[in-house]
Structure prediction request, 490 residues.
Amino acid sequence: MSHLIRKLEHFVRLSGADRAILGRAAAERVRNFAPRIDIAREGDRPRDVHLILAGWACRYKQLEDGRRQIVSFFLPGDICDLNVFILREMDHSIGTITSVTIADLSREFFDEIFVGHPRIATAFWWEGLVNSAIQREWTMSLGQRTASERMAHLFCEIFLRLRLAGLTREDSCDFPLTQADLADAMGLSKVHVNRTLQELRSAELIILKGKILIVPNLEQLMNVGLFNANYLHIDHEGRQLDAND
Amino acid sequence: MSHLIRKLEHFVRLSGADRAILGRAAAERVRNFAPRIDIAREGDRPRDVHLILAGWACRYKQLEDGRRQIVSFFLPGDICDLNVFILREMDHSIGTITSVTIADLSREFFDEIFVGHPRIATAFWWEGLVNSAIQREWTMSLGQRTASERMAHLFCEIFLRLRLAGLTREDSCDFPLTQADLADAMGLSKVHVNRTLQELRSAELIILKGKILIVPNLEQLMNVGLFNANYLHIDHEGRQLDAND
DNA sequence: CGATTTATTGAATCGACTCAATTGATGTGG
DNA sequence: CCACATCAATTGAGTCGATTCAATAAATCG
Prediction:
């Protein structure tokens, strides 16, 4: 939960009461999943909105012949689409990467938020808009960036998103993705991911070993990935809505 | 306006009053744009939510070195992100393809909808969720589909979206995109788009000439594009919210 | 510790790209 | 309404980024 609050507070400052409501909602229906398990499958009826409390997960889609694309990653503090439950069926699957803890948030919780807690509501809107922007940026990456630019870009994005959630050290963070995961996310073959990683490593842009990523020089990596952080909208803009305590 | 209503009614049946409200909102602040003009630019402060009344537009992003990616198309009846105005600046540009007529919808209009008109609010939510799903599907296309699959898929998507808005004849529709537009949208070179089109044409999957697209056999085209319409969520699911008149 | 997954390397191939030139449309002003 | 200018579409040839297939090395896990 703290990861969500930490993230949202980059946009809107919440009151103690706001934080308490979020804390309660996230403590109610908590579930744990093993690594490499589906939380939801394409075709399922969406019931609740999931909040990731701990661990990494992803959305993915698959073609009949097995080709698989990871369309987004869920990091701690991320929420899947607000209001999904108005749809009849999932158009994609959600699977875990590591072991994952989620909280299921009910329709009623959101009804309550949207009528009585405008600051949280605004923060949720912001979260959703940023997720859309991330999806657009992935479209950009897949369409225009070369393999190494694309990888560098993804490393920047994940590093910054983790930092917002308070999940980085100085210049390092956990990084549990396998090269196969990276391949599925970047639309590249495993072999080429491997070679591209070697390239980034020998340029001393990243150190990636034992599920830990070190970014010695973020600015440099951003340059290589043609990374512009504007799409993450990390400006404290909700000021007019700030709580006073 | 009628295109928006027509589209939304695939999900929620609206009342006469609902339709009237939408009609009024869309008549208030109407603007016209010439073809190949920017409606909004990356970096601008977002002021209003735009509703496309007529014509085709697109969102696009550009890298410093000029590489350009169209990340989505706007067709008549489409709305750009709800609540964009809470963000400080645009992370992408919006440009016209043809001449375009838009209506600017204000913050106040949405406040009114979300408190007093739950059916419209639900329909807007649905619209937004479908747009997210479309963006994910583009990620899938760019990451996994081959050039010809990708093109076939796009033709299917556009044809179906236009049909929802009431903008197709039997098996044909307007199609004002140039091969350069297609290239920017599909992450391919112009030359390769040209060759891929020839391939689809000689397989008699499409007839594309003079800005008119004919799809002689949609089912066949869907097979080639590995197209599954589930992501458009065109099931009349909001039934419980239907108006009675 | 063996078993399985993950990472690495080499070689051959192919899909898509670039460059460059040509043909065909479209549109505008005189 | 034609002539010219511009933009859009097409074709050919050579190249390159990324792929596939296959084998090996290194981690990780029960």
